[in-house]
Amino acid sequence: MAELQSVERALEALLDGVAPLEAEPVAAEQAAGRVLAETVTARLDVPPADNSAMDGYALRHADAGGWLPISQRVAAGHAPAPLAPGSCARIFTGGEIPPGADTVVMQERVEIREDRAFIPGDIAAGDNVRRCGRDVSTGEPLLEAGTLLEAAALGHLAGQGITRVSVRRRPRVALLSTGDEIVDPGQPLGPGQIHNSNRPMLSRLLERFGAELVMRETVPDDFATTRRILGEAAERADVIITTGGVSVGEEDHVRHALESLGRLDLWQLAMRPGKPLALGRIGRARFVGLPGNPVSCFVGAWVYLRPLMGALLGSPRMAELPRLWARAAFTTRTQARRHYMRVALDFTPEGVLARAFADQNSAVLSSCLDADALAVIPANSTLEEGDTVECLWLTH
Ligand code: AMP
Ligand code: MG
């Protein structure tokens, strides 16, 4: 039997030579979840002028500690006049500080009699003033190339009045489900047949990883058909993903079809689940052959497909799963393969606790339902309850 390859070597082979895809323009309103292709520079100061953080009274700090006439009223969105000497201005949150004023006192601390305000003396210069450019200064990098455009980044772009951005094209993915027994939900099941659970599961994960599915096919366990559909996928997709048919049985045709069209870079991994996973390429398309068991697909997607999409999108945040350390609420022992156990995380005041689903068999998809993380158990090791365990957090 071929020697098992490490996950690190597999990732290296998979990502070798992968460069970010082309840039394309997109409306900022449509840019959620996309990855910036170039750094965006700030073209406006935010805020555009000094303004008030409170509803209150604006004054020169030197005039604090006495009664001051209220010489004007400044609401947000309206230009103030210069502050008359020895006076204060009624001001509202977001209102521009009148030229000459430098401090705002919140209204709760001010006593009003007719058109005069008593300003306490124990205030500091600059209190409650949001300085021009404090958030963003013109000419500074606003968002770096490679930024995943999530909520705060979209708000930041809008704050600059930006309506179009340059983002990476979504990786085009062909998702091929192999197996004579595989039937779509909605179709009747014949003897020995099962519904295709991998396709919707992987479709959802790939969507989260920023990909666009351009081809979905169910492929029978037959060499000629497998080869034909793989060839077609290589024409259309940046990434070809197959499920099933990649092991050593006579009905497993994917590897031979791959080798007849392109090349197999690596096969047989020192990981559990997912040992028969195969990596290669056909023409310019990358090939990832996931084993058919749903849990192997789930784990394989997080461990291999997400970094691959991250590399194609030029997004470091997508490329690397966040790691955290938790206390194991279980005991386990591994042999020659590293085990990726599906765990739920409890965030407690004493730290993070990782709870493993009882049945970690690769055919048991329920073990993924509550999975917040994959606990990584090194090969040839024993983990006792209470030991610290490295976890890959299944999140952004
Ligand atoms: P294979 O890797 O083709 O030997 O498949 C391993 C196991 O996964 C078999 O029990 C298959 O029936 C099952 N399987 C393969 N593909 C799927 C799928 N798309 N959905 C659910 N189970 C599958
Ligand atoms: Mg099969």
Write structural notes for this entry.
This protein is α/β, with parallel strands linked by helices and 396 residues long. The chain is built from eight helices and 28 strands. The strands form eight sheets. A six-stranded mixed β-sheet has the order 7-4-6-5-9-8, with no helix packed on it. α3 (198-208) runs parallel beside α6. The longest helix has 20 residues, at 294-313. The radius of gyration is 30 Å and the shape is elongated. The protein starts with 6 loop residues before the first helix and ends with a strand. The model has no long low-confidence stretch (mean pLDDT 97). Residues 177, 179, 181-182, 194, 196-199, 243-245, 247, 291-294 line the site of adenosine monophosphate (AMP).
Question: How is this structure best summarized?
Answer:
The protein is built from 8 helices and 28 strands. With 396 residues, the chain is an alpha/beta fold. Adenosine monophosphate is lined by residues 177, 179, 181-182, 194, 196-199, 243-245, 247, 291-294.
What keyword list fits this structure?
single chain; 396 residues; alpha/beta; 6-stranded mixed sheet; elongated; binds adenosine monophosphate; binds magnesium ion
End-to-end C-alpha gap: 37 Å
Q: How much helix, percentage-wise, in residues? A: 10-25%
Chain-averaged pLDDT: 97
What are the distinct ligands in this entry? adenosine monophosphate, magnesium ion
Number of helices: 8
Calculate Rg over CA atoms.
Answer: 30 Å
Largest sheet, described in full?
A: 6 strands, mixed
- Give the helix/strand class: alpha/beta
Outline, from the CA principal axes? elongated
Number of strands: 28
